[in-house]
Every structure is written in structure tokens, then in C-alpha cells.
Write a structure and sequence with these properties.
By secondary structure, the protein is mainly α. The protein contains 22 helices and 2 strands.
Length: about 525
């Protein structure tokens, strides 16, 4: 383990060194300055999370333009998410090295630069490299946005800070495919990257102006090289495996087996090393705090189920209902509507109740929303689908905002930054796991139901004979009739698989409802500290 002595740089006054203030000596921001900082940090979070999904629907267009296959084109997505997954847990360590304000400014500046370079890329390999760099620079943006926003609010109003932060985290991935599809269809794919430029410049200017002289204390700690290497190996292998396991056939593929073993070994060694190292890149000692551990586990597992259930719906809409990517995005977008308007209400009143009951209600609403969505059928109209998504989204403000308060309860100063980095990393990882597992489950349940349905479709079965007679009267050939029958069975099987996933989601959310009481009671956002 490293034994190098940490040198703390804490100036006694603002006059001696105005860029290195002790956080707790500064008053929280007020009035217009607080409003502008809230907008800027929320936009930083929104921009980073949006880029995890905005390119998804543009992959076929980009692949065609650059002369690569659609499967190769998915590297545009995986390179970004892989780099971001590695960078997010480094946030606390990097912030201690350079200061939170400097770190977020550099992150936003480089993210904006690489966004522009992605749009200017003329060949596929260059685009993938710039996306990788964009993801690497984006890692600290979300946890720092959360940390800076919380530390800039008075303790009594931190519920509002978490409400604005959580709202952007939820809305951005929903808006990504919708915005990406619209831009690609009406302009050109380059603009899905260019739109980050004005937003990034605005955020940089606002943060630099509003937080001038409010830099956090800096600790010139030695680089934990071993921890950093283990983090890259473990997290990188896990993220890559999750993104490609379904296409490779999961553990039927030797590549997936090797990646899984590498990820497990890397992460186990990382956990042991970071626990005993004096200057860890990831502070695992936060897990000794009961509410942080319970809240982070609930947030990670809850986001796994939430994101998994979210990603299955577009598969059903596009595979069975025949929606294109834009209309699929429109049909699912109401999931965020309630959060947009009701999150501030939760934030303003969270201090009045035990937040565990709010989380309990959130999981209950998710459970009800999952069950309600299972009532949809191939005959459902887009209005009915949108209403089902709205009902599912009722639980969002009761889930993210109170859980953030639970996670941050009792934390002070730079602890908030380290906690934000670790909890956001696990939340992001939960989304990746949910996507991989639920898509695989949906695919396999579709195949299962298809086999069972086809077993019943044979001459002598009244339903089979009636359907084939109806098709025969239209003049279709026998091969065409069998194809139509198979397509009908496939659509029905996919619908049944979607219902299975929604039932499973509902059941798991019910279990999580009661797990929240493993945490200690807490009212509102009680985390301390400030810039």
C-alpha cells in the first residue's frame, strides 16, 4: 500500500489564496445566483446523460454514411458508455486533486470539444475515438453536478437541489432517442453532437462566474496506480460484457466467459486494495454508513429494474406495433411528465416526512405502473400506450429524490462528492445490467412463447383451420399463408414476453418497497457541507 504522506492545502483566509477556500466557511448562494447555478449544473447533468442515448437511433444512419455494418456501428454507443463507466467512480479522487470547480469546468470544456470533433469526424474509427474521449471527460459531470448543487443550497433547501438534479437524470435518457430521431430525420446526424456546443459554453461561463473564489480544498495525494489499473480492468470488462453478451450468446461464448472472470477478479481485487489503501481512487469506506449502503443498493437495484422495464417497451413498440424510432419515443415520453412538474413539490416538502415512506410509495407506484402497462395489447392505440407510460412514471419523483436524501444523509463537504461519484457509478452500472438482462429475458421469453404457440398450430386445430381458410379465400399461396401465420405467432409471443417482463418488474418493485426499512429514519436532505 502507498505510504506517501498526503499534503493538505488549506489556506487560512481568502486573501492568502482565494482559489482554495475551506468549503464550510462560505455561505450558500442565494437569489438569482442560486437559480443560475441550478440551471447550469442541471444542464451539465442533462447533457451528459442525454448523450448516453441520443446516438442510439442514429446508429443505422451513421453506419450507412461511413460504410460500416450496423453491428460495428454500436461501438459509437459502447465506446462512450465504457469510458464514462470507468471515469465516474474517479470523481471523488480527481476532485480532491484539482478542486471541484476546476474539475467540472475542465470536464465540460473537454466534453464540448470532443462533441464538436465527433460531428466533424470523417471516418468511423476517428468518430469512435472521439466518442471514447467524450465519455472519459463526461464521467465527473453528473456526480459533480449533484455535489455542487447540493453544497450551494442552504441545508433546509437541499431537497429542492436533489429534486432538480434527479429530474434531469430521469428526463435525459427518455428524451435522448426522441431528440436523436428527430434531429437525424430532419437535419443530419452531426447535429446530435453539435447541440452540445452552445449548452457547454453556457454552463462553463455560468459555473466559472458564479463559483469564482469558491474552489474546494485541494489535497496533493499520490496516484493510486494499482487501484486505477484494477478499476479500468474490472469495470471495463464488466461494461463491455454487459453491452455485447446478448449478441454473443452470453455464457455460450468463450469471450463472455473470459470477460466475466476478468471483471469478477478485477473488481474483487479492487475492493480489497481500495479498502486498505491510504489514498484510494474509490472510497469504499462510505459503505460503513448504513443509510448510504441501503440507499445505494436500493437505487442501483431499483434503477436496474426501472431501466430494464423501460428498454423493453420500445422493443415491443417497434417489433410488434410497427412504430418507427420517433413515434416509439413519442409513445414512451410521458413517463417523465409527472416528474417534471411534481419533483419540485417533493423537494420542497421532503423535510416534513420520513423519506423512507416516500421511497416506499415510489416503489409501490412503479409496481402498479408495471402491472397497468401489462394490460396493453397489439390493439392498443398510441394514446393508451402513452397513458400507460404516464402511470408508470408516477413513481419517479418518489424514487430518485428521497433516495438521494437517504444516500447523502449525514455526509459533509467532500464526502458528498465521493458519495455522489460512487452512487452514480453504481446507478449507471445498474442501468447497463438492466438493459442487458431484461433484453435477454425478453428475447428468450419471446422464443419460448413462440415455440409453445407453434406447437398448437396444426391441421385439425379449429383456430388453425379457420385462420388458414380465411387466408385461402384471399388467394394467398400456401407459403404466404404459413408466413403470415408465423408472423402472427411471433407478434403474439413478443407481446406475451413483454407482459412477463412487466409482471416480473412489478413483483420485484413490491419486494423493494419493504427493503427500504432497513435504513434508519431520516427527514429530508440532512447532508451537511457547502461551497
Amino acid at each position: 500500500m502507498s505510504s506517501t504522506q498526503t499534503i493538505e492545502v488549506n489556506q487560512p483566509s481568502n486573501i492568502a489564496n482565494p482559489s482554495l477556500d475551506v468549503p464550510n466557511q462560505l455561505e450558500p448562494l442565494k437569489g438569482g445566483a442560486l437559480v443560475m447555478l441550478t440551471i447550469a449544473t442541471a444542464m451539465v447533468t442533462f447533457m451528459e446523460v442525454l448523450d448516453t442515448t441520443i446516438a442510439n437511433v442514429a446508429v443505422p444512419t451513421i453506419s450507412g454514411t461511413m460504410g460500416v455494418s450496423a453491428n460495428e456501428g454500436t461501438s459509437i454507443i459502447s465506446s462512450y458508455s465504457l469510458a464514462a463507466a470507468i471515469a465516474v467512480p474517479l470523481t471523488g479522487w480527481l476532485a480532491r486533486r484539482v478542486g471541484e470547480v476546476r474539475l467540472i469546468l475542465w470536464s465540460v470544456a473537454l466534453f464540448t470539444l470532443f462533441s464538436m470533433l465527433c460531428g466533424l469526424a470523417t471516418d468511423y474509427n476517428t468518430l469512435v475515438f472521439f466518442r471514447l474521449m467524450q465519455g472519459l471527460c463526461s464521467g465527473p459531470m453528473v456526480p459533480l453536478g449533484q455535489s455542487i448543487m447540493m453544497n450551494s443550497y442552504p441545508p433546509a433547501k437541499r431537497g429542492m437541489a436533489m429534486a432538480f438534479w434527479a429530474m434531469t437524470v430521469v428526463i435525459a435518457p427518455v428524451m435522448g432517442p426522441l431528440l436523436g430521431g428527430y434531429i437525424t430525420a430532419n437535419y443530419s446526424w452531426e447535429w446530435i453532437f453539435y447541440i452540445n456546443i452552445p449548452v457547454g459554453l453556457f454552463c462553463m461561463y455560468s459555473i466559472k462566474t458564479l463559483l469564482k473564489g469558491r474552489e474546494t480544498a485541494v489535497s496533493y495525494q499520490p496516484i493510486d496506480v494499482v487501484g486505477l489499473v484494477l478499476l479500468v480492468i474490472g469495470v471495463g470488462s464488466l461494461q463491455y460484457m454487459l453491452e455485447h453478451a446478448n449478441d454473443l450468446g452470453w455464457f455460450e461464448s468463450s469471450e463472455v466467459v473470459v470477460l466475466c472472470i476478468t471483471a469478477v477478479v478485477g473488481l474483487v481485487f479492487l475492493a480489497v486494495w481500495e479498502w486498505y489503501d491510504k489514498n484510494p481512487v474509490v472510497d469504499l469506506h462510505l459503505l460503513t454508513r448504513r443509510n448510504f449502503t441501503v440507499g445505494t443498493v436500493l437505487q442501483t437495484v431499483g434503477f436496474t429494474i426501472f431501466f430494464g422495464a423501460m428498454v423493453v417497451m420500445p422493443l415491443w413498440l417497434q417489433g410488434v406495433m410497427g412504430y418507427d424510432s420517433v413515434h416509439s419515443g413519442i409513445a414512451t415520453s410521458p413517463v417523465a411528465l409527472f416528474a417534471i412538474f411534481f419533483s419540485p413539490v417533493i423537494g420542497m416538502n421532503m423535510h416534513k416526512v420520513d423519506v423512507r415512506w416516500l421511497v416506499f410509495a415510489g416503489f409501490g407506484m412503479f409496481a402498479f405502473g408495471s402491472w397497468y402497462s401489462s394490460l396493453l395489447s397489439p390493439d392498443s392505440t398510441i394514446e393508451q400506450i402513452m397513458w400507460g407510460r404516464f402511470v408508470f412514471g408516477l413513481g419517479i419523483p418518489f424514487f430518485f429524490i428521497p433516495l438521494s436524501a437517504l444516500i447523502m444523509e449525514g455526509l459533509e463537504g467532500e464526502e458528498i462528492t465521493r458519495a455522489a461519484g460512487l452512487s452514480n457509478f453504481l446507478r449507471t452500472l445498474g442501468g447497463a445490467i438492466g438493459t442487458a438482462v431484461f433484453v435477454t429475458l425478453w428475447s428468450r421469453r419471446t422464443n419460448f412463447h413462440h415455440v409453445r404457440l407453434v406447437e398448437q398450430l396444426h391441421p385439425g386445430n379449429p383456430a388453425y383451420d379457420t385462420f388458414m381458410a380465411q387466408l385461402n379465400s384471399t388467394g394467398l399461396s400456401e407459403a404466404a399463408r404459413l408466413t403470415a401465420l408465423n408472423n402472427m405467432a411471433t407478434s403474439q409471443a413478443a407481446t406475451m414476453a413483454t407482459v412477463d417482463v412487466l409482471y416480473l418488474s412489478s413483483g420485484l418493485f413490491i419486494v423493494l418497497m419493504f427493503c427500504v426499512f432497513f435504513a434508519k429514519p431520516v427527514k429530508g436532505a440532512s447532508a451537511a457541507g457547502g461551497h
